[in-house]
Design goal:
There is one protein chain. By secondary structure, the protein is mainly alpha-helical. It has a single domain, classed as Up-down Bundle (Na+/H+ antiporter like fold), CATH 1.20.1530. The protein has 20 helices and two strands. The longest helix is centred in the middle third of the chain and has 34 residues. It is found in: Membrane. One of its GO terms (cellular component) is membrane.
Length: 507
């Protein structure tokens, strides 16, 4: 085993992050200098997604995989799904205890579940596995091929499986002011605390009752009189949600039973417009007017349209999912895996494939080696171009300098801590556990390094582009506040995780 000093570990871990920072800084600087407009940035992103990235995946997967090591796809897929599932669960827990802007109520789930599995890990992992203590080019190709499995799961879960629909759901329905969301969260916490108090009070009474002998006593005359003259009370909850800027909340009052029954026969006209204002999103016909009282003529319901059959809906959904999967990057990854495990096909691109005998080209290389060389040449631009567009996207995010007191600081910070601190710890524990049970090959250091490293990724910047599309205004104002702390913590946590993982693998 290779023994690495602390200084060497820190330098090996920090060096690729410095290169990543400089590349991102270039995109940030030219965007701030107004020489890289948004049209150019979008064009560069399209070139990266549809040309350079597919070529990079093809040039790395085909020579790296074979029928012997294709079994590594199983652990990669399982770990990828685990990371996304843990991230989604973490976001849901954050939503339960901290308020989130109304237009980001589902976006936080995507921010927690989908990390930046593209340019950032590719840049760092290629740099680390391309030199000692790894085995140079072979391990470098293998590491990028392993990342391709994570990227494939990312594409499948975000698009065909509907992860991106959560972002679209943020912009359905009327807007809700932040102070209304905060008030609802405050009341939710209050009810939660009261529930816990009642639970512990009930538990303490049960424990005390178990220690005492129960005795039955007859009520005295005063108790009988109080019981006969007491008015039966029951809670009446009035829940009102306002979309016109008024504060929303819950009011709970105790009213006599006979008064509640009398009130149930009346209609509170003032609350009707607020309720029906939200319902107009799903009502196919106009609603009755309540401004003139209840004497308005009833509206004749419109017959509902015939819904398509279940078979037709499944077919339409399947076709839509298939179309979203047929992107250049996904197709390149799938085709590359197929070619890599079929020796006669692989021998057309890569020399020295065992068990094959294919006549070489005039230059002594395989017949289609020129295609592999072309893919390698074009793919080399993928990582720098992706990091430049990342810097450009970060430069266009609105930095909330003097607005932090109005932002959901609790959810922002806990999401950053969850993704950049908690997830790496869980990643190490998960990968070590899978290694101990034999699911991950203990001797495959590249596989173990990639699985652990990809647990420490900030939220994918793909969400920025999707949010800009679905918002209708081209902005991603809420997302920026959640991204910035993660990308600041990234340089610290990635360096620490990389150094620890190298020490773990090569101690």
């Amino acid at each position: 085993m290779v023994s690495l000093s602390v200084g060497t570990l820190i330098w090996v871990s920090l060096q690729p992050l410095i290169r990543l920072f400089l590349c991102v800084a270039c995109g940030f600087a030219i965007t701030k200098a107004d020489i890289f407009p948004i049209v150019a940035a979008r064009g560069a992103g399209q070139i990266m997604l549809n040309i350079t990235l597919p070529n990079l995946m093809f040039s790395k997967i085909v020579p790296a995989f074979n029928s012997q090591n294709i079994s590594a796809l199983g652990p990669l897929v399982v770990v990828a799904f685990l990371y996304e599932g843990i991230g989604i669960l973490m976001s849901l827990l954050i939503k339960q205890f901290f308020w989130v802007p109304h237009r980001f109520r589902y976006g936080i789930i995507v921010a927690g579940g989908w990390g930046n599995v593209g340019d950032i890990p590719t840049s760092v992992v290629m740099s680390i596995t391309g030199s000692a203590p790894f085995n140079g080019t072979d391990d470098q190709n293998l590491s990028v091929a392993y990342i391709a499995a994570f990227l494939l799961i990312f594409c499948i879960t975000l698009f065909p499986m509907g992860g991106s629909r959560w972002i679209a759901m943020d912009y359905v329905g009327p807007d809700v002011e932040n102070h209304e969301v905060q008030e609802m969260m405050r009341l939710k916490r209050k009810r939660l605390m009261e529930g816990w108090k009642k639970f512990f009070h009930w538990r303490s009474r049960q424990s005390q009752a178990d220690l005492e002998t129960p005795t039955e006593t007859e009520p005295n005359e005063n108790e009988k009189h109080m019981h006969s003259t007491a008015v039966e009370l029951r809670p009446c909850t009035d829940k009102q949600l306002s979309f016109d800027g008024a504060a929303a909340g819950y009011t709970e009052t105790m009213v006599p039973l006979h008064s509640a029954e009398a009130m149930s026969s009346q209609v509170t006209v003032s609350a009707a417009p607020t309720i029906f204002q939200a319902e107009t999103l799903v009502q196919p016909h106009p609603l009755p007017s309540f401004s003139k009282g209840l004497s308005a003529d009833p509206v004749q319901p419109v017959p509902p349209k015939d819904k398509p059959s279940i078979r037709k809906r499944i077919l339409v959904q399947g076709i839509a999912s298939l179309r979203s999967l047929l992107t250049p990057a996904s197709l390149s990854i799938i085709i590359s895996f197929i070619i890599s495990v079929i020796p006669p096909l692989k021998a057309l691109f890569v020399p020295g494939v065992p068990g094959t005998n294919i006549s070489p080209a005039p230059d002594g290389q395989p017949p289609l080696a020129f295609l592999m060389n072309t893919a390698t040449f074009i793919g080399a631009a993928s990582v720098p171009l992706g990091l430049i567009t990342l810097g450009s996207a970060l430069a266009r995010l609105k930095v909330p300098r003097n607005e932090w007191k109005f932002l959901p600081v609790g959810s922002i910070m806990w999401l950053a801590v969850g993704r950049m601190l908690v997830m790496p710890i869980l990643g190490v524990l998960i990968c070590q556990g899978l290694t101990n049970v034999g699911f991950i090959d203990e001797n495959n250091n590249v596989l173990r390094f990639v699985c652990i490293f990809l647990s420490c990724l900030p939220t994918a910047t793909t969400q920025v582009f999707l949010t800009q599309v679905y918002s209708g205004t081209g902005s991603a104002e809420h997302l920026s506040a959640f991204l910035i702390p993660q990308y600041i913590l990234m340089f610290i946590t990635m360096t620490a995780l990389t150094a620890y993982t190298l020490q773990l693998l090569f101690h």
